[in-house]
Amino acid sequence: MTKLSPAAQEVVNAYTSTPIENGAKPALAAALRAAADQVAPWDFDSDSGRLDDGALEFEAGQDCRNEAIRLELFAIADELEAQ
């Protein structure tokens, strides 16, 4: 079996370490939160130090997009946990 990347392993660990006596939804929510941490970490900073025209606007957009992705994944996780 091929070894998983660290990011994929974090998602698997979150899923498998969550008790499923109340169904799979809490474990799925945990896996989504772990995926968000891997894909769109809360401490993401796109600042590359570039000063050319448009670089700051581009990087600000990356930060906003990253946060939007994270919030969407967390909203799905919240919905699963509320069930």
Structure description:
By secondary structure, this protein is mainly α. The protein has one domain (6-82). The protein is 65% helix and 0% strand. The protein has three helices and no strands. The protein has helices at residues 6-16, 25-39, 55-82. Helix 1 runs antiparallel to helix 2 (25-39). The longest helix has 28 residues, at 55-82. The radius of gyration is 16 Å and the shape is flat. The chain starts with 5 loop residues before the first helix and ends with a helix.
Write the layout of secondary structure elements.
Layout: H1 6-16, H2 25-39, H3 55-82
Compute the gyration radius: what is it? 16 Å
Give the oligomeric state: single chain
Compressed to H and E, one letter per element, the order equals HHH
Average pLDDT metric: 76
**Helix/strand class:** mainly alpha
Give the helix tally. Answer: 3
- Range of strand content: under 5%
Shape: flat
How far apart, in Å, are the first and last alpha carbons?
Answer: 35 Å
Task: Tell how many strands the DSSP assignment holds.
Answer: 0
* Low-confidence region ranges: none
Provide the helix percentage.
55-70%
Whole-number count of domains: 1
Largest sheet: none
